[in-house]
Amino acid sequence: MSEFSWPHPTHAEDQPYAKSILYIHVFHRGFEAGGLIGSLWGGYKLYKGRQTIKSISPEGREAVAGIAGKNAGVMRTIFYPTMARSSLIGAGVTMLLLTGRMWGAEEVEWQDRSWRLLENEGQVRHDLYADVGAGVGAVSGVVGVVGSKLSVSRMARELAGRAGLGAVVGFVGCEVVRGYRRFTSKDGEKV
């Protein structure tokens, strides 16, 4: 939402593309929320996977390390698919929830919500950080899968998983910057 300069008139009743703006915003937030849940669940699965490997005999550990390539294979087989699944499920669920919430709503309600989103500087900043993070994650995914012998579906899962992780990192970065600005501003001004 933040990279694209949506038309933003002075009055909410004049807001064009209201449904598109709201759906894109909700998709982004759902993708990010799913990524946050996926990072926690994926981290837990990584921990349990490493505990299982530690419980194997030393000869078995060497065989597993040889197959997976120490740490690289674990991220590809456990963490990124979990991130991809949860990010896409989060985006889909929030889109369905928005459709249900706005079912039968008049055009002016869509326009008002979209106009307020574009008016909110903090939300626009949050969108920018999360979108840049997702973009960097997706680019790292492309770089990571180029030349690999992964199937197309595994490549897509890794790309989506890295984009979800990037969106979460962007969100956290935005909150850190916002907290720093609030901390360093005079008299705790709202930033």
Short précis:
By secondary structure, this protein is mainly α. It contains 6 helices and no strands. InterPro entries: DUF1757.
How would you explain this protein's 3D organization?
The chain has helices at 18-54, 58-68, 72-101, 107-119, 121-145, 152-184. The chain is an all-alpha fold. It has one domain (16-188). Helix 1 runs antiparallel to helix 3 (72-101) and helix 5 (121-145) runs antiparallel to helix 6 (152-184). The longest helix is centred in the first third of the chain and has 37 residues, at 18-54. It is globular.
Keywords:
78% helix; 191 residues; globular; mainly alpha
State the shape. Answer: globular
Query: What's the gyration radius in Å?
Result: 21 Å
What share of residues are in beta strands?
under 5%
- Helical content (DSSP H or I, runs of 4+): over 70%
Figure out the total of helices.
Answer: 6
DSSP E strands, number = 0
C-alpha end-to-end distance: 20 Å
Tell me the structural class: mainly alpha
* N-to-C series of helices and strands: HHHHHH
Please tell me the total number of domains.
1
Largest sheet: none
Spans of 5+ residues with little confidence (pLDDT < 50)? none
Residue-averaged pLDDT: 83
Reconstruct the topology from this structure.
Blueprint: H1 18-54, H2 58-68, H3 72-101, H4 107-119, H5 121-145, H6 152-184
Helix pairs in contact: 1-3, 1-4, 1-6, 3-6, 5-6
